[in-house]
Fold:
Amino acid sequence: MKSMNLFLATFFIASLTISTLYAEEEKIERKIYNTKHVNQESPKIDGVMDEPVWESVEWATGFTQRQPNEGDPATQKTAFKILYDDNNLYVGVRAYDTHPDSIVRRMSRRDGFEGDWVELNIDSYFDHRTGYSFNVNASGVKGDEAISNDGDNWDSNWDPVWYVETSIDKEGWIAEMKIPFSQLRFSKKEEQVWGIQMTRRLYREDEWSVWQFIPQDSRGWVNRFGEIHGLNNISMPRRIELLPFVMGQTEKFKEEAGNPFATGRKNKLDLGLDGKIGVTSHFNLDFTLNPDFGQVEADPSVVNLTAYETRFDEKRPFFIEGSNILDYKFMIGDGDFGFDNLFYSRRIGSYPHHEPDTEDDEYIDMPESASILGALKLTGKTEKGYSIGVMEAVTSKEEAEIDFNGKRRFETVEPMTNYFLTRIQKDFNGGASQIGGMVTNTYRDINDDHLNFLNRSATTGGIDFTHQWKNRTYTFTFNNVFSHVQGSREAILETQKDSPRFYQRPDADHIELDPERTSLTGFGGTAYLAKFGAEHFQYMAGVTWRSPGLELNDMGYLRQADVIMEWTWGQYRKLEPFFIFRQIWLNFNQWKGWNFGGEDTFAGGNINFSFQFKNQWFAGGNVSVNGRDLNVGALRGGPSLYLPSRWSFYSYLQTDNRKVLRLYGDYYHSISNDKISFQSNYSIDLTWKPINAFSLSAGPFYNINRDNLQYIDTFEKDGENRYVFGRIDQKTAGMTLRLTYCITPNLTIQYYGQPFVCAGKYNHLKRITDPRAAKYENRFHEFSEDEISYNPDWEGYDIDEDVNGEMDYSFDKPDFNFRQFRSNLVIRWEYTPGSTVYFVWSQNRTGDDNSGDFSFRNDMNQLFEVYPHDVFLIKINRWFSL
Structure:
């Protein structure tokens, strides 16, 4: 551990020293567009631009290719004009095309970004880090995104209310936009200067051209925008937006004789309200009362055989929009630690933590989630560069209703809970550096003894710092996190024993399980030094750590505590076309980990590559090696187990996505040095777009997993734990289907469906005997025929370790078959800007048994023999601007 401490100290000293050097910024030659106030009738948004008022300003031209031939003039001319009045910004774009019959007019839902399009980016804060994007394609389909972190984050879930029309003529196509100032945020200065950028995509050539040229290898995007001048005496209009909704829902499911809660039908009528209030010119208050997320796509099906929680993406609109402002992801990348975050919004409104035990002849009606009574977000940025985000949400106390021969009782399954979050960041050094912090608190109003296993209060927080220098090419980032949870002895004992920590591990001398604790505190963080952008080579080196007591899972997400990891990454890229390639990327990665006791726990590395060819095809892959892994979770709280090293290979191929028929296929194979365990994954995604308004995609997948050491259960014999494992042969198959038909840009039909089947069969049952033995075969003992017997009467195994005729312990047959079908059909009609009608039909079928035999045909037949659970709903909302 001394060597690890020396590494950390050396890294921090070197990083802090280097980050003080070279503060100069590149002198950027910025284009300037001069706009004017409309002193006559404002333009009519009809996609024609024939009003005389457009003649009062000049055209902006001179677009430059960014891809494929960086620095060359655009192959087709683009020009734009900008005007404004007291309430709106008006933008007219003329996309000239010498072959107007070749303009690609793709239809899609909002934010589809398909076909020929133009895009306006506005940095109205003029902070060189954040902005707003307004995009429209030649068919008139809108796209809009909130830009943050100097272009590293683009949030397409931001849906402002604005207006646009397009038309095609013999010279090309025209886009005419009206953007209300109420949808932007800016300072109170009498004379405004905003950053702007205009981008055009010529789809048939896959050409991207920009008004303000920004090289591909530049670090950042927003900080290099051109400028718009002449915006004088703009006053922020009163911003009160209300979006009330009414929702009617009918559920149909299988009737169950004798069960008063399974009558086969359930009806629901609900009301709710979403709103936005402009508190000041800098800050918006978003709120929701009794939100409904019935139109949200279902989560994909999974079978999780690990010790760790499955993480799902957020799909609910209130939590998605502006999520980058409330984000505190303290590890870069997308590996095992890359999703750790102080805020994981899926905690709010999740499935209840407690499920009551029921007696014979008792039936239970469980709530599907904790109802969100209300939530609000205050977000904005001051003129001095302070970004502030505050969120609070309250979920209701939830009760399960239990029936016994007509007598009803209620049992609390989730306490009323308050979630609070504050995020602050300060820009300085012209937006090249930031310092900030975040604090969250979860408080549960626990009044029932059976809920004492939950933490009553959980507070987490952290401070983050980023400094960029030498034209933002070099970056030093440091952040830390802390956690402090409080609760009953039962709650804190459960927190210590939970899968991210496993304090009960008998071989972990550096931690101690304390049943008398009523609180637990931990810390973590990440630091790295990197070179991004500029020239062909990029690199990064860093370290991340999580103390044994760190707990973020009341409001955030933490996969594993008690870990320290260092890593290095390097990349060579060539972004200009050469030979048969359009672009190439070659990467190298290395990592090594320890626990806080100083033990080596894992190590590995990989080489990966990706090529884009001149015909617009992509190909790539990687080769990875993972050394022997001292796995702390394999025995679910028992001693750590040495798992053998493994090699893995991955490859993919993607055809030109501009074509009517598009294909993406990939293959992954991993093999363990035990010469038994392996994993193979195959997937294909085929997309067919025969006309501009219709697309159909089918993504079949098939996975094979053989693991010689798959955990089954833990038993006790003579006061000692027995960790029972088996060799699992697991097969998974399914298909993801998506259909989109766009009748108009505002009326779309979308379908999502995923049939999913998985079977797992166990053999070579064994128990762990010496988990740290040097030789692999000495780490376990496989049960002999005399030690194990199968009992078909109750479908389980009896274990007689001593072969004395007496059963020591027994367990159910672990084989399984899991089948699930999830789908939803959504008809969405935006009948007026900001106001929408949803018609939704969702269906779920779930079944299982313990045969363990995989047969795709039989499993699929049995899946569609399962009685479906159908939900039909209609939701209508209406946008009001007051």
